[in-house]
């Protein structure tokens, strides 16, 4: 098989659509919008090769400024080495035989502490579920959902997560639906009416359960109607080394007398459960 290839005439896909590459042995070319050959490689299974390509980080960085596409030519497996060497020699791609760049990893506790500092005045610890053989220790935080504006806590948390979603860290925010607000919200309003739009904002503010884990501790954030009441019955503690307010122990004594479903099954938060591995490193 001839090893002379014209990558600019080959079938190609945008870098972001690499999952659609064929499952075949191939010679491939990463090419930018200026028709610069950035990288030449070989693969026995092309789509599998691009699931976790060692040059992906750098190519994605380039793609932000100058779109990158992957061109390919199906090839006999036994001739891949020769075709790759020939194409590298001919096109002198920019990234072949250069140091592989990888993204900086941000420790999960650094991300956690930044989040907690940002929202320390908007969240309150209501209690913990102690660690068991089958479950990590869980810390439960509450926010006041009644501010449904763009400056409300729910909106700000969503904005924070969106702004930081590309960080290379093991701490990942998972969002679940908390409950169907409309089940107990009362009257149903005419679609498009002011009242209906208000109800929709309330639903977006209320219907959130964020969950994330760091250093063996799982943290939950859910809405409450009683944020101010909890705040009035709280004290300053540390969570991941950050000053935070937590509901005091006396409140849990009262739970035995007065039903409070939010505190049911929880214990009082008494000491910081998050070990800090990077704080002083």
TrEMBL record:
Residues 23-97 form the GIY-YIG domain. PROSITE patterns: GIY_YIG (PS50164). Gene3D superfamilies: GIY-YIG endonuclease (3.40.1440.10). It comes from the Bacteria. Transmembrane segments: none annotated. This is Excinuclease ABC C subunit domain protein.
């Amino acid at each position: 098989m001839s090893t002379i290839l014209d990558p600019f005439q080959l079938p190609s896909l945008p870098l972001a659509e690499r999952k659609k590459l064929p499952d075949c042995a191939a010679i491939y070319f990463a090419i930018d919008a200026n028709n610069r050959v950035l990288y030449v490689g070989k693969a026995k299974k092309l789509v599998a090769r691009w699931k976790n390509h060692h040059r992906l980080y750098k190519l994605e960085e380039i793609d932000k400024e100058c779109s990158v596409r992957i061109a390919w030519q199906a090839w006999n497996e036994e001739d891949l080495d020769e075709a790759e060497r020939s194409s590298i020699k001919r096109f002198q791609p920019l990234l072949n035989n250069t140091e592989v760049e990888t993204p900086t990893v941000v420790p999960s506790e650094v991300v956690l502490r930044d989040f907690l500092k940002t929202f320390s005045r908007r969240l309150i610890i209501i209690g913990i579920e102690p660690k068991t053989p089958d479950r990590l220790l869980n810390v439960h935080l509450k926010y006041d959902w009644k501010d449904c504006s763009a400056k409300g806590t729910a909106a700000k948390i969503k904005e924070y997560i969106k702004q930081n979603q590309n960080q290379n860290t093991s701490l990942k925010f998972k969002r679940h639906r908390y409950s169907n607000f409309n089940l107990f919200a009362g009257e149903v309003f005419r679609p498009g009416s002011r009242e209906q739009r208000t109800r929709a904002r309330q639903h977006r503010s209320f219907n959130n359960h964020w969950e994330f884990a760091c250093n063996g501790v799982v943290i939950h954030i859910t809405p409450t109607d009683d944020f101010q009441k909890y705040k009035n019955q709280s004290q300053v503690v540390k969570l991941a080394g950050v000053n935070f307010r937590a509901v005091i122990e006396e409140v849990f004594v009262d739970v035995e007398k007065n039903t409070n479903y939010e505190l049911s099954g929880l214990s009082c938060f008494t000491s910081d459960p998050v070990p800090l591995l990077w704080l002083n490193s």
